[in-house]
Amino acid sequence: MNPSRRTRVLVVGVALGATALFASGAAAGAAPLDHQARVALFPKEHRLTVEDDLRLPAGRAEARFALHGGLAPEVTTEGVSLEALPGSPTAEQLGLAPDNAFGFPPETPDVTVYVLRAEDGSLPSAVTLRYGGVIHHPLEAAGEEYDRSFRETAGTIQEDGVFLSGASYWLPQLGSRLGSGRGAGLVTFALDVDLPAGWDAVSEGRLAGRSVDVRAERRGDALSTHVRWVQETPVEDAHLVAAPFTVFERPAGAITEYAYLRQDDKALADRYMAAGAQYLAMYDQLIGPYPYPKLALVENFWETGYGMPSFTLLGPTVLRFPFILRSSWPHEILHNWWGNGVFPPVAGGNWSEGLTAYLADHLSKEQQGQGAEYRRDLLQKYADYVRAGNDFPVAAFRSRHSGATAAVGYGKTAMIFHMLRRRLGDAVFIDGLRRFYGDHLGERAGFDDLRRAFEEAGGEPLGPFFDAWVEHPGAPRLQLTSAEAEPADGGWRLRVVLSQRSTQTGPEARAGMLFPLRVPVAVTVEGEPTARLVEVDLDGARAEQTVTLPGRPLRIAVDPAFDVFRRLDPREVPPALGALFGAAKVTLVLPSGSPAELAAAYRDLAKAWGATGAGDVTMVRDTEIDALPADRAVWVIGWRNRFRPEVAAALAPSGAILGEASLQIGSAGGETFAAAERSVAAAARAAGDPARPLGFLAADRPAAVPGLARKLPHYGKYGYLAFTGDAPDNVAKGSWQPVGSPLDRVLATEMSPPPAAAPLPQRAPLIELPPEPASE
């Protein structure tokens, strides 16, 4: 995830931080603001002191900056005055238009805007500010939808750790920092940090020194440790993280790897540093040299997954999940190239999250032979969470704060890069990546820069492709209009007609907006072990293609590996809980026959889900309606719900048996979850209406219900779940099988049984992960 935007790794998400991205007419390409700061941290008092030498653009009569309201700055440079502006901070106070996108986000702490003025009309190139005070903001829940529940802080100094970011306004953030150019909003800095005995500190950049004053330590002085960090190339923000760390380090070529852990756990540190060396080597080869002198894993004191230039901040539980080593860790490492090496533009069009997801998360699955499944999940999330009221163009994406923004900013953007790769070929695609990185390292760049890099690499114009996919919302829906086969010249001739229909709303739909598509069609040919792939260019509403084959085509499948970003037909993917959590309208049908304590717990769950703002969520008792609503998703809650048989009928095509007191998965002999021992959840589709999701949820005890309310939204890709205990703990999860796709058609209809689809040809991943380096 992206750095000063305070990204969330887990699992895998992003939340925009409150870094003040201010502009006051700075010229394009202006030099970054530089801080030379001396910092003292007093964790027991939640306090810090700072002396900051600000390197300012020459020739200014004044400069405006924002600073945490509790820090009380004074200017110590002769001939310079300092004035605090009254009232709450506004964009206008910093010389911005009232509608500027980079004003103060709602989570901004108490902030004051100050004006530095020169008595002789020209500020010196360096102005020194001295200030101090308390920064201790609580951890608060953030997020808009079911699955976005996590905790954040605007910044805190406390006895178990320190976390300061741009959102803390612990360093001055100047109106002159930004312009509209490639250096907009970037900073360089050096931090000299004094800390208590046994503590250490981490920031961006290079570790330039660490020392311990043994005599001060013996005397019990408040501060006895000194650490210096230097960030010499531009970054978006200056973070400062501190705690009583145990530090491990080792070289990885020209890079130094570190692990800052809150426990002395060398085995854990070694695992992360070994994997880190692998990913550094892989991405160096794929993209270009790693842009920073270090790569550090840092353990936080609450559950986070933040990615900053040259280090990643993971929570203590998250850090020890074994899957994080091969999922979130490489994702965050790659962000040092995308988002923290080449920076996205300040005004939207954040391509870095989607490109990182594609070259980290998707690449990992591709290396395991699971790329198609990963792409299917991306398309399913778009189908589950994005609808007419919350869709938007990729060009408008800034950060993730909901299921819909994640589905567009991460999922759709990743699929755009996948389609571009298929259009250009792997070699040209890699060349385009390397050109883009080499041309824009250390500055801001946007989709136009990406387009130019790939055009230069491939020698073909890509304007229509980027315009359609980046500037417009929506997704096409594919249709297999016809497929006809006949003998011809000793072989067979196959004629395929595809069409697309826009699923957009608004002006684009009225104008008939269509997308440029290259659609793979898999043909199972009699006697051939693998399917043949036919590429159909579908740039308009309809395309026809005829191919000659040596044998009889038995069946065809359109886009069987989910290579095209599109609106899925519900029959292409199995029923999953995400369809319920992403629905615009949801009704929870509560049981009237449950014991009072369990009924009250169910009501609390319904209220909690209704308060998320995820959609129109209502609740009703099963005795208050004659039939389940037909215009919305429905949760049927409780074993004693009188509509349980209706859900049982909907689950039957998936091979599940939902009884009065058990859920059985599969046919006779399958796994059974008894009501007295397990809490369960399952997803289905309404009989006769595959677009309408149904869900079933039942708890074995009232104490388990709050945990179910909190945990279930994180399991959106699954079709069924079972839990045990009060926590509750997940003990089983799985997915149903799709019931059939309208894009899959048997041509040899007389055969019984119908011919099976031949396996698709195997694809090589974009790059292989190099072997883990030998341990020392």
Notes on the protein architecture:
It is a single chain. With 776 residues, the protein is of the alpha+beta class. The protein has four domains: 1-141 and 153-201 and 208-238, Immunoglobulin-like; 352-471, Neutral Protease, domain 2 (Orthogonal Bundle), CATH 1.10.390; 476-572, Immunoglobulin-like (Sandwich), CATH 2.60.40; 578-734, Chitobiase, domain 2, CATH 3.30.379. It is built from 14 helices and 41 strands. The strands form ten sheets. A seven-stranded mixed beta sheet has the order 5-8-3-2-15-18-17. It has a seven-stranded mixed beta sheet with strand order 32-31-33-38-37-39-40, with helices on both faces. A five-stranded mixed beta sheet has the order 20-21-22-24-23, with helices on one face. α4 (352-367) packs across α5 (371-385) and α5 (371-385) crosses α6. The model is unreliable at 1-29, 97-103 and 506-511 (pLDDT under 50).
Secondary structure layout:
Blueprint: E1 23-26, E2 33-42, E3 47-55, E4 62-68, E5 74-75, E6 80-84, E7 111-118, E8 126-134, E9 140-142, E10 150-152, E11 156-158, E12 161-164, E13 173-174, E14 178-179, E15 187-195, E16 200-202, E17 206-212, H1 214-219, E18 225-235, E19 240-243, E20 246-252, E21 255-261, H2 266-286, E22 294-299, E23 305-308, E24 311-314, H3 328-334, H4 352-367, H5 371-385, H6 403-424, H7 426-440, H8 447-458, H9 463-471, E25 476-488, E26 491-502, H10 507-510, E27 517-525, E28 532-538, E29 542-549, E30 553-558, H11 578-581, E31 585-590, H12 596-610, E32 616-621, E33 633-637, H13 644-651, E34 656-658, E35 662-665, E36 672-674, E37 679-686, E38 689-698, H14 705-711, E39 720-724, E40 729-734, E41 744-746
Parallel strand pairs: 1-14, 2-15, 21-22, 22-24, 31-32, 31-33, 33-38
Antiparallel strand pairs: 2-3, 3-8, 4-7, 4-13, 5-8, 6-7, 9-10, 11-12, 12-19, 15-18, 16-19, 17-18, 20-21, 23-24, 25-26, 26-29, 27-28, 27-30, 30-41, 34-35, 35-36, 37-38, 37-39, 39-40
Helix pairs in contact: 2-3, 3-4, 4-5, 4-6, 5-6, 6-7, 7-8, 12-14
